[in-house]
Request: fold
Amino acid sequence: MRVTGYKSHGVGAAAALVNAVTSAEGDDSDEALRAVLADHGFFVEGFTPATAAELRPWARTLRAFFEAGALDTAVDLLNGLLTDVPMHPHLADHDELGLHLHYAPPQVDLAHRFRATTLMNLSELLCDHGVDRIGVCAAPGCDRVYADDSRGGRRRFCSDACANRTNVAAFRARRRTR
Reply:
């Protein structure tokens, strides 16, 4: 199963939340965290300062997953979280998404739904692709994380900007040595 479309929003949301809360250039304000959820397809009508307060520790927990490096480490972390986060999967058919699976019922708070969704989507990514699709940006001085849900699976940077900056620096260094 490929983690795309509806499933990839949890993967992207997890990386974006980790970057907002834990990276040097992140913004973990309530409004920034609300925007992270909204940008990744979560219904944010119930977002409150309490939601933001619950998401910050979740971001710090998930950072360890992106930094895992080894499959056993990532599996152990996710298995522990799967035990800690109650799941109540159900089928939903709303908006243009068509029939799909939610991992927490609609009546639970937004932070709980976010934890359940990101945890399951990251678990699916790990099962399908191992740890080669997650990591910390390879650009010097960047501490942001990434999750690669692309077809090729060769991503090593958090953004095109970091990839371009690193590649241009390497090109210039090679030219200087000639």
Remarks:
- Residues 67 and 148 are 14 Å apart (CA to CA).
